[in-house]
Amino acid sequence: AALVVAGVTAAFVWAYGTDRVSTARAALEQAAHSVAKDEFTTAVDQLESGWQAVRWLPGQSDLKQSLQTQLAAARHGRLAQAVHELAEQLRFLDSYPSVPIAQLRKLDEGCQKLWDVREKILQPVGTASSAPDQALLRANLTDLAIAWTGLRLRLDGGENQAALRSEALARLSEAEALCGPGFALDLAKQQYASAAPALDDPGASGLPAARTPRDHYALGRYWFKNNQLVQAVDEFERAIEQEPGTFWPYFYLSIAAYRLEAYDRALDAANVCIALVPGSAPCFYNRAQCHQAMGDDERALRDLNRSLQLDPSLAVAWLQRGVTQARQREFASARADFQRALELGASPAETRYQMARLELSAGDRSAARQQLAAALAADTDYAPAAELVRDMNADR
Fold it and tell me: Is the overall model pTM greater than 0.70, yes or no?
């Protein structure tokens, strides 16, 4: 009886161990496929499951070492991916003049969390961090630091600008010590060193001279943020000439050209953006604006629909679709879109102003006045609403 019990127990232990080992090896294989598709979070979950399967199993030291090595690499890859994705969000951020405060705060929290582990992020792990990957990671961290400084100033609303400029300079120095010097960092440090940005000719203002495509793009962003759109367009076009097929110079070229009312150039750049990144909601939104400015509401509406399919939280797209549908006298649909834009954090002044125009088109002057009052309550300096109030009063 004892021999039978011992034999059954041994068979059970062997079967259990074999099953655990098979589970761990399958996890390694699955994680390798996930990493190849840049699905690092999935890979971490798979490897942690595999590790738990053999963690307390005697022996299997090679398998355990492989699991731990790959798990560390996957976790590092997840961090690197988080830096890239947040840097991308921050690059899109500057293209929108009105962003919900809750979204800005969420981005600020994300920046803080990643910055707190910045040295860990740049620490090479196994064979997962090749030299080109490290170069890209340093560039993304640098861009994150630069954009974060602007985000903090934007969140402040002008109350503590001097203190935040000092904080920005300190953070940029940290980024330089960690990631190395660069043109974009020099440009940002020079801007924050003085409350008045240099807005003259780059040579006369002391701005560094751009040489590489990345330099021209950074200088273009500088001019763009300071509303010097002619200079911005010139720098973005120089970046594209030196390195065709790069997404971000085209993206900002489209917006800058649109604001200069160079709609054909803006539309061309927007088309390139969509070809390069067909899954980007902001790109379809930018192209919709170009179509609308050129009088093609049908194409604008198609692009706005696609933009909202890709990102239903894009408040400016709801607002713009409401404007387009109001022009087509689809008043009920336009009202619903304006309401959704307000819920998602679109500018209350601009949205209420557009709702007032809708009510005027629908023949309801009383409702229009209510919307204009709400627009001016949200922003007493919102000129379009004040002008429309004057026009309505003159028509009495």
Answer: yes
Q: In 3-state terms, the chain is what percent helix, strand and coil (to 5)?
A: 80, 0, 20
pLDDT string in tens for the chain (396-residue length): 666 555 545 444 444 457 778 888 888 888 888 888 888 889 889 888 888 877 777 777 788 888 888 888 888 888 888 988 898 888 888 777 777 778 888 989 999 999 998 888 888 775 544 444 788 888 889 999 999 988 888 887 667 778 888 888 999 999 999 889 989 998 888 888 765 445 555 444 567 788 999 999 999 998 998 889 999 999 999 999 999 989 999 999 999 999 999 999 999 999 999 999 999 999 999 999 999 999 999 999 999 999 999 999 999 999 999 999 999 999 999 999 999 999 998 889 999 999 999 999 999 999 999 999 999 999 898 999 999 999 888 876
| In contact, 107 and 89? CB cutoff 8 Å | yes
Q: What DSSP string runs through 82-107?
A: HHHHHHHHHHHHTT-S---HHHHHHH
